[in-house]
Amino acid sequence: MFQKVAVIVPVKGIPYYFVKCMASLLALDYPDYELIVVDDGLEPGILSALSKFSEKVRILKSESRGPSFARNLAASNTDAGLIAFTDSDCVLERSWLKELVKGLEQFPEAVSCGGIQKSPDDASKFQKDVFSAFHKTGRVCEYMRSASVDQVTEVDHNASCNVIYKRDIFLKEGGFFEGLWPGEDVELDCRLRKKGLKIVFNPKAVVYHYRPESLKKVYQMMLRYGMVQAFLIKKYGIFRKVQLVPFILLFFIMIMLLTGIKGLTVGLILLIWGLLILVAYFLSLRAVIIFLITIVSWNAGFLKGLFMKSPLAKK
Dihedral, CA atoms, 193, 194, 197, 198, nearest 10 degrees? Predict the structure, then answer.
């Protein structure tokens, strides 16, 4: 017997890919699910377009209080035993929900299950390069995990664009940290793991995620991600591999500066070799540029977050 699932999507502004997202949501191959779209500040035109789905979709309003509040609001307004989350710029495979539920069935003790992200076939060349840059760093940041094995495995974190939780435990543990964005999914999974709860990953649960369409948007997004990671370190200490990166980079920079001209020369040679390796690794100069902007903006955001006087988010 299939357990009822509430699929929750927070939406804001004018989501360009939302029509594709809705079409894939309505076509899911799962016998018992409801769709909850949370209006987190939609433009009037999008709201009118949503009205044609009113019989199939529940629409809640969150008064533009952010995606964490929006997701928690929807989770509190359903009787479904399971709650699945995705984003408005994602397109889902028909089997997506079945595979997430299957992960929980294979690991009954698990509190949540996530899946894999892929690049849509109709994404622009730039978006595919962004996806490639993000995917290459997947082993460090754990955001875009590779399907190294074709089976359900235990992990530390799943992205909120492709994840399902047991609703009772989600609510008991307080849901997403309201006001925190992005990284609210990292914070929640950190709390769950600290309590000894199991999180799993099923590579057969697939979403196709559209990526930023300009270098400016990549920079802004990664700057924010870096700030959030600094906030999380101040709250929980270091608990992810990616959080070590700024300290390692700072260490090497200090070593080069302290060793004078020789150190700077060695550093320059290593930088050139590193760039050549990156070109060979990505086989795309634009992907290398995106990767470098990602690294610079993330670390800049991290340093900014470490020295911020006010907290990044409030509970």
Answer: 30
Whole-angstrom Cα distance, residue 64 to residue 81? 26
Instruction: Please report, as a single letter, which amino acid is at residue 25.
Output: L
Question: What sign does the CA torsion over 298, 302, 305, 307 have?
Answer: negative
Domains in the chain with CATH codes? 5-127+141-211 (3.90.550.10), 216-306 (no CATH)
Which residues are CB-neighbours of 92 under 8 A, at least 6 positions away?
A: 21, 24, 25, 28, 86, 206, 207, 208
Is 27 buried (19+), middle (13-18) or exposed (0-12) by CB count in 10 A? Answer: exposed
**Per residue of the chain (315 residues), what is the pLDDT tens digit?**
579 999 999 988 766 788 889 889 999 999 999 999 998 877 766 666 666 666 678 989 888 888 999 999 999 999 999 999 999 999 999 999 999 999 999 999 999 999 999 999 999 999 888 888 777 665 545 555 565 667 899 998 999 999 999 999 999 999 999 988 888 999 999 999 999 999 999 999 999 999 988 889 988 988 988 888 888 888 887 756 666 666 666 666 666 566 666 666 655 656 555 655 555 565 577 777 888 888 888 888 888 888 876 656 544
Among all chains, which residue has been given the structure tokens 């997403």? 176
In 3D, which of 74, 216, 154 has the Cα closest to residue 84? 74
Q: Are 89 and 210 in contact (CB under 8 A)?
A: yes
Please provide residue 280's backbone torsions phi and psi, each rounded to the nearest 5 degrees.
-65, -35
How many CB atoms are located within 10 Å of the residue 151 CB? 11
Backbone phi, psi, residue 180, to 5°: -90, 125
- pTM over 0.85? The answer is no
Q: What is the CA radius of gyration of the chain?
A: 20
